[in-house]
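Bumping my old thread because nobody answered last time. Still need a sequence for this structure:
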């Protein structure tokens, strides 16, 4: 059963748009590097709470693939790069019926 991961990003005000675009590109590129990550959709907030500047939806083939993603070296590398530029981050995974 497919699993979706929703991620909400709140970038620090001091982070440039160019740097944010670079981070988003890195996140999108994980689709080609992480087995079981089927699709990445990411972009700026257009509706909803203003706290969040960007959102992402990552689709995984299974719960096991999401679990592997959370331990994948590429996830760790990107998390360490973007972490200092984030004010806060929220995420929620769910199975698709």
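Sorry it took so long. Here it is:
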């Amino acid at each position: 059963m497919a699993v979706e991961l929703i991620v909400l990003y709140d970038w620090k005000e001091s982070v440039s748009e160019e740097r944010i675009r670079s981070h988003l590109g890195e996140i999108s590129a994980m689709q080609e590097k992480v087995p079981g990550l089927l699709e990445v959709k990411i972009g700026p907030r257009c509706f909803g709470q203003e706290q969040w500047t960007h959102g992402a939806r990552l689709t995984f083939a299974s719960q096991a693939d999401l679990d592997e993603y959370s331990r994948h070296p590429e996830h760790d590398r990107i998390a360490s790069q973007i972490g200092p530029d984030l004010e806060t981050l929220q995420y929620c995974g769910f199975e698709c019926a």
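The CA atoms of residues 32 and 59 lie 13 Å apart. Let me know if any region looks off to you.
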